[in-house]
Amino acid sequence: MSKDSDAGAERFHDRERREKEYKGMLPGVDEEPLPPPVDPIHADTKPDRNDPCPCGSGKKYKKCCGKEKP
Ligand SMILES: [Zn+2]
Question: Using one digit for the tens of pLDDT, what is the confidence trace for 15-62?
Fold first, then answer.
């Protein structure tokens, strides 16, 4: 009777493996979800030079990232 039980175990493992393969094909099961699209500060829409810098430094834009190069 050991032959029958072996076949059963084999079938079980085969099924388990197939399930893993199937899950592997599904998108986003084990992968990290894509981060939500972050809208970056558009390079062509600069803030006002006297507004607080969008980088969050608390400085005015003209004194931080908007600093003009000498
Ligand atoms: Zn800044």
Answer: 777 777 766 666 655 667 777 777 665 555 666 889 999 899 999 999
Indicate yes or no: pTM above 0.70. no
CA of 55 to the centre of ligand 1 (A): 4
Alpha-carbon separation of residue 14 from 9, 10, 18, 30, 51 (angstroms): 8, 6, 6, 21, 64
Separation of CA 33 and ligand 1 centre (Å): 30
Cα angle for residues 45, 51, 53 (degrees, 5° grid): 75
Q: Pick the closest to residue 46 from 36, 55, 58 (CA basis).
A: 55
> Would you say 46 and 65 are in contact if contact means Cβ atoms under 8 Å apart?
no
